[in-house]
Write a structure and sequence with these properties.
alpha/beta, 4 helices, 5-stranded mixed β-sheet, elongated
């Protein structure tokens, strides 16, 4: 899927949905950006979503809000969401000034981002396995300890 202004596109790479924001994103692009990130979350099987910002030269608080909302939606769906650079100076400054670098999963390159998605996916799968094992143990019938085995004389 490619949008009209060629500033947003969605592709697949190694079972990861990759959303690319390029050039300048402004208020006019908010709907397209939101739609692209929503589709990345809901369409087809994927290990996670990588938001490639390496070609993004301008974004403001409106686009940052779109990214933070997508991050929250991915967390709620228990689906990895990672941003990838390298980030242009204005984009890095936006992230640093707003403090979102402590909240978002960020990688310096696309390849590093894909590796991070795999790590996050594996952590989620391990956590699900641990929860399933705990649930199975909690619902398993307890052995009857009220009558100890009789000792033979």
């Amino acid at each position: 899927m490619v949008f009209d202004r060629q500033s947003i596109d969605v592709t697949r790479q190694d079972r990861v949905t990759v959303v690319c924001f390029r050039n300048e994103l402004d208020l006019e692009d908010t709907t397209e950006a939101t739609l692209a990130l929503s589709r990345a979350l809901t369409e087809g099987p994927s290990d996670g979503t990588l938001l490639d910002l390496s070609g993004l030269t301008f974004a403001d608080s409106t686009q940052l809000n779109v990214i933070l909302r997508a991050h929250g939606e991915h967390q709620h769906a228990q689906r990895p969401f990672v941003l990838a650079g390298p980030y242009q100076p204005g984009i890095s400054r936006l992230f640093e000034v707003t403090g979102v670098t402590d909240v978002l999963n960020m990688a310096d390159t696309r390849d590093e981002g894909i590796r991070r998605i795999r790590e996050l996916r594996d952590e989620l799968l391990d956590a699900d396995t641990d929860v399933d094992a705990a649930t199975d143990a909690a619902t398993a019938p307890a052995s009857d300890q009220s009558h100890p085995p009789s000792a033979s004389m």
